[in-house]
């Protein structure tokens, strides 16, 4: 694949991740992670792919999630890629009907598996305005 094709495939993966979060599609979220994928949520412990299966379903069932990623930089080299982005996220608890909007810095480490990019590591931290 050319560098442009790799970058497009990576952008598509991040876009699919955002869509899966926004539509509460927990199975698609899981499918976008590599088998050794880890999620480092802000203020919580690290979650591996297998725990993500139960955690994402419960979280998404109890909350309406809206996220938009703005990709700032993509570096692909061999089987790994690094994506720096910012995101604006609104989470609305369905029981309380209140929402919280945050902006964060995001870092994705991707790994190519069977010629497809997968999320290998994802970490974010909230930015204060």
From TrEMBL:
The terms under GO molecular function for this entry are: isomerase activity
Asked if Coiled coil is a keyword of the record, the answer is no
List each copy of the DUF4440 domain by range: 12-119
Which keywords label this protein? Answer: Isomerase
Q: Which domain of life is it from?
A: Bacteria
Q: Which InterPro entries match?
A: DUF4440 (IPR027843), NTF2-like_dom_sf (IPR032710)
Name it: Ketosteroid isomerase homolog
From the broadest rank down, the organism's phylogenetic lineage runs: Bacteria, Pseudomonadati, Bacteroidota, Cytophagia, Cytophagales
